[in-house]
Amino acid sequence: MSQISYHIVKEADNAIILSLYRQAGWWQMDENPQYLETVRQIITNSFCFAIAIQGNEIIGMGRAISDGVSDAYIQDVTVRQDLRGNGIGKGIINTLLAYLKKHELQWIGLISEPGYERFYQGFGFKVMENYTPFLLGE
After folding, report:
1. Domain containing 71 — which CATH number?
2. 5-41 per-position pLDDT tens digit
3. Got the DSSP string for 35-80?
4. I want to staple 62 with a disulfide (CB 3.0 to 4.6 A). Which of 6, 10, 77, 125 is the partner?
């Protein structure tokens, strides 16, 4: 596998990022043209948005939302399906953590999809015992 580089960006190819969201199962499959603008805003408005690049192609992403002072939440970490299992996700997490720590954020959290707990524990994340994540319903 050729060299992979990791970058914090405020702009990226919105169509490729949308494709990564869809491969992860996190985005609708219809062709609403507003989706590309929504993706652009996600990238621009995240505290940090990391991409993994191989050659000239974006092959993975992740982001953190934060107030920039105290807390940060990592989310949307994914790698192109055919390249998973090659350490690219680790590179994305390391890039995000380095950026967040450089900005002196002390509380960094995330919600793991089932089955990925050990992946995140490898970075020092711990299960938050006695806490329950919530999502506002419709």
Report:
1. 3.40.630.30
2. 999 999 999 999 999 999 999 988 888 889 999 999 9
3. HHHHHHHHHHHSSEEEEEEETTEEEEEEEEEE-SSSEEEEEEEEE-
4. 77
